[in-house]
Design a protein that fits this description.
Blueprint: H1 11-33, H2 38-72, H3 77-89
Helix pairs in contact: 1-2
Length: 93
């Protein structure tokens, strides 16, 4: 496992989003234990899922924009098209 420090500009935003999702998840657990209605619980679970999915999407896009670019290096416009298409399709992960 690579242990060198690996930080990007978006990491603080991702951490903030994940901490918010963590708080929501803890709230969902409390809601279940308190016997809250399933609809309320499902809505909160949906919010947790969306927050985590957005954090993942941001992390992947940031990685593609910075790490992949550094490895691949300068390319012609034609060769870059494949990387750009990969970056675009990764938005749907």
């Amino acid at each position: 496992m690579d242990t060198k420090l690996h930080l990007h500009e978006t990491h603080p935003q991702i951490v903030k989003r994940l901490k918010r999702a963590d708080g929501h998840l803890r709230g969902v657990i409390d809601m279940i234990e308190a016997g809250r209605p399933c609809l309320d619980i499902a809505q909160q679970l949906h919010a947790v899922e969306k927050a985590i999915a957005q954090a993942k999407k941001t992390l992947i896009q940031d990685h593609l924009d910075h790490c992949l670019e550094a490895v691949v290096g300068p390319m012609t416009r034609e060769r870059r098209q494949s990387i750009d298409e990969f970056r675009e399709i990764a938005k749907y992960l």
